[in-house]
Write a structure and sequence with these properties.
Layout lengths: L1 H15 L8 H8 L2 H4 L13 E2 L11 E3 L5 E3 L7 E6 L4 H16 L5 E6 L5 H11 L6 E3 L4 H6 L7 E5 L5 E6 L7 H16 L2
Parallel strand pairs: 4-5, 5-6
Antiparallel strand pairs: 1-8, 2-3, 4-7, 7-8
């Protein structure tokens, strides 16, 4: 009985989110050092794994540029539509589990929301390209962030995955830290309602 309880507890932790300690040593340092801490600011409110959180609403989408394996550029500041931004890594089990649900969500909300995945893998395309080829995602875009700049901006103690919804003006609406079923009715409704509310408030 003890073994079964221990196994269930470990499984729950794995599904909730990955600490950056599971990745490469260089990745750990980059993902766990937040810019607010470096500046001596007060730490952000805690992020609740697997739950929709709106405490960070209004946070601006950072002005960062990323590349894919072909050298194409993604300028976050130039995106003029709602964005669901996902930070993930191939070594993060909850990230890998939720990726197909993000692919499905991208299809469900095509034209209304752009779903962008940005890998925090320090090895970049070397591991991301084979992963995408194996999974055969139809809509997800394999952008790379080997320096973990986004993790430094948004993660709480290096927790991955983290997925953040921004409106067309680049203002945060909601976020989820840890694994989540993005293709569920709850998720689709939450994303749709948040975007519609932001548009009606303009």
């Amino acid at each position: 009985m003890f073994r079964m309880v221990a196994f269930v507890s470990l499984a729950a932790l794995a599904l909730a989110g990955c600490d950056s300690g599971a990745g490469d040593a260089a990745q750990e340092s980059a993902a766990s050092t937040g810019s607010s801490e470096a500046a001596g600011a007060a730490p952000p409110p805690p992020q609740i794994p697997g739950k929709i959180v709106r405490a960070f609403a209004g946070t601006q989408l950072p002005d960062l540029t990323f590349e894919d394996a072909e050298g194409n550029n993604l300028d976050l500041a130039a995106i003029d539509q709602p964005v669901l931004l996902n930070l993930w890594a191939t070594w993060c089990a909850p990230c890998v589990i939720e990726m197909p649900t993000l692919d499905t969500l991208a299809g469900e909300l095509d034209g209304d929301v752009r779903v962008i995945t940005v890998s925090q893998d320090v090895r970049g395309a070397e591991v991301v390209e084979p992963f995408f080829a194996d999974k055969g995602f139809k809509r997800l875009e394999p952008w790379l962030d080997p320096d973990a700049d986004l993790a430094a901006e948004f993660t709480d103690a290096g927790l991955l995955p983290i997925t953040i919804l921004f409106d067309a003006e680049g203002k945060e609406l909601l976020r989820v830290a840890g694994g989540y079923e993005w293709d569920s009715e709850e998720a689709i409704a939450a994303v749709t309602e948040a975007i519609q509310s932001s548009q009606s408030a303009e």
